[in-house]
Threonine ammonia-lyase (Sphingomonas corticis), 413 residues
Amino acid sequence: MATQVALDQSLPVSLADVEAAHARIADSVVRTPTLVSRTLSEMTGATVYLKFENLQFTAAYKERGALNTLVQLSDEAKAKGVIAASAGNHAQGLAYHATRLGVPSTIVMPRNTPIVKVVQTQGHGATVILEGDTFDAAYAHARVLEAERGFTFVHPFDDPRIIAGQGTVALEMLADVPDIDTLVVPIGGGGLASGMATVAKAARRPIEVVGVEAELYPSMYNRINGTDMPCAGDTLAEGIAVKEPGGLTSHMVRALVDDIVLVTERSLEEAVSLLLQIEKTVVEGAGAAGLAALLAHPERFRGRTVGVVLCGGNIDPRLLAYVLLRDLARSGRMARLRIRLQDQPGALYNVARIFDCERVNILELSHQRIFTNLPAKGLSLDVECETRDRAHLDRLIAALQEAGYEVRMVELA
């Protein structure tokens, strides 16, 4: 993969293209901050700088490439309008800036797109068409409408104008923090990684670029490394859950990106939770992928000055709540204990006394008498509780066992 060499002149995007894109869009997108995180730096052993692209108006970096494309359209193309297939951040970024520039926009989404995303995209001024049960079906319909109505199709990643716009993220990061020696970039279709790597590899000093994909969707990893791992499943990082990366972006990633690492769902959940707790910032699964890589591969980045892009913050509030609660459970601050009791008066009271003595708060109780393999006079009690930390939980379990109770934790996957 990439080394620090002169940029291949055959690549479709150059540093000059990215700099020109920045000149076009700088006044119309947020110059998001790049800030050091002392706590995350201590946790990972790297000096960690975060680029808060979740603070864009539509909460994602996708605005940059969309706007860079829109402002380069001819007057005739602007009058006819643009079209895209997207159920995510590309849809909102394109719709917002198209409306702001007076360009009609149409977004084709699969019929099963969550209603909140449909409403948000319509709220930015786009006409939303629901078509097909998959992204591929929505994409095919968008290309039909493009031909029938003379729209300009705006690809989410496989377009030099999009790639150049996304590369402006790296221009700003390296201008703000010249000491960065490693960029960690989420990869879905590859537009962001391609653009940022273009900037990094044009620098006068070595800057490593590491792409990050969800373990369930290693599409670019497969393309670059010749592997055939499956791309399927429900990932928290749906923004980078791409089955087929772009042709242009694959060429650029192969030439410019030094490495691609894969992260598990558990690492993604931990990263989302830590960013909220430590940095007080809401980040979607794809936006947390860079931090997830540092958490999962600390030896890979230890001692480096690392720039991490928090590329988006559009996460469903209910999903965010689940992620936070699961993280509390994994850290021992919340637990569900299954305790075997005898079905007799005072049994629950005696157990509750132990929780009180250990100063553990009981959140929920559930008895099971019927669907259990215990004897008829026995019962299973599930106690959901909250503790200060893992050590506090361990003391509670030890106290229950010392009192003669059979107890086990109901573990998360």
In short: The radius of gyration is 25 Å. The mean pLDDT is 93.
